[in-house]
Design brief:
alpha/beta; five-stranded parallel β-sheet; single chain
């Protein structure tokens, strides 16, 4: 990019391009969004690009799996319910930090964990299935059993359909590592040295508690009937389904 990371470039033709693609599809399928850029950034309140895209997905009878860290998604719960009534709508929420004060330090520009849990509850009550992403978990900061069990308790109470976890840790590329270390010095004095000693310049920084935390994670998911194997969770989100109401509507 030729601009600051915090600046955004708006895909102003996104709605038109999406519609041109949808009309060309022989059969409807699941549409995924949110993996690389949150569809509910602050500017969405003004632009409403995401809502317009959801309305197109609804109009053409497609399903959607949408991922966000923002409770702005609640604005569009009416469209999400309509999509889910005809096909399948899966709302994905990222959770990393159970402690609210710590969450405000680690993720200062998005909805707090409690606010995201409230989104999961709204979706549960609306009959919309949800999936939670547990990543990244930062070694020496929030890679504790207490944090994990707090997040899993939210998942259990919200009756999420699946939880995605690829291990407990984070990844650091050249460039992002320097930015991360600078913020560690500001917010968590002394922790940078732990990273350097434990991981050096490695890309993958796995928590020393990874194996123990994975055992807790798998046991709790199995106990409460929550999908946790990535192949199963992704398989569920990719599978297009047609509800009886849509069959009756379109014969």
């Amino acid at each position: 990019m030729k601009h600051d990371f915090e600046d955004i470039e708006v895909k102003r033709d996104a709605v038109r391009i999406l519609e041109s693609q949808l009309v060309c599809k022989r059969n409807p399928c699941m549409i995924g969004t949110g993996a690389m850029c949150d569809p509910y950034i602050h500017f969405e309140e003004e632009l409403q690009v995401t809502r317009q895209c959801l309305e197109l997905i609804k109009r053409y009878g497609f399903g959607v799996a949408i991922q966000t860290k923002s409770n702005r998604i609640l604005r569009d719960v009416d469209v999400l319910k309509d999509i889910n009534a005809m096909t399948k709508c899966v709302v994905q929420i990222t959770l990393t930090t159970f402690d609210e004060d710590l969450c405000r330090i680690l993720e200062p520009y998005v909805s707090t964990t409690a606010e995201r849990f409230a989104v999961l509850e709204v979706m549960r009550d609306a009959g919309i299935p949800t999936v939670v992403w547990l990543c990244p978990i930062l070694p020496f900061i929030n890679d504790t059993e207490e944090n994990l069990r707090g997040l899993l308790d939210y998942c259990i109470r919200a009756k999420v359909h699946g939880v995605l976890c690829f291990g407990f840790g984070t990844t650091l590329r050249e460039g992002s590592r320097e930015y991360f270390f600078k913020n560690l010095d500001q917010c968590f004095p002394g922790v940078k040295q732990k990273y350097i000693q434990a991981f050096g310049n490695r890309y993958e920084c796995k928590s020393p508690s990874n194996d123990r935390l994975m055992d807790v994670f798998k046991a709790e998911c199995c106990k409460h009937g929550i999908l946790y194997r990535p192949v199963d969770v992704f398989g569920y989100m990719r599978k297009f389904e047609v509800k009886k109401s849509r069959l009756l509507q379109f014969g």
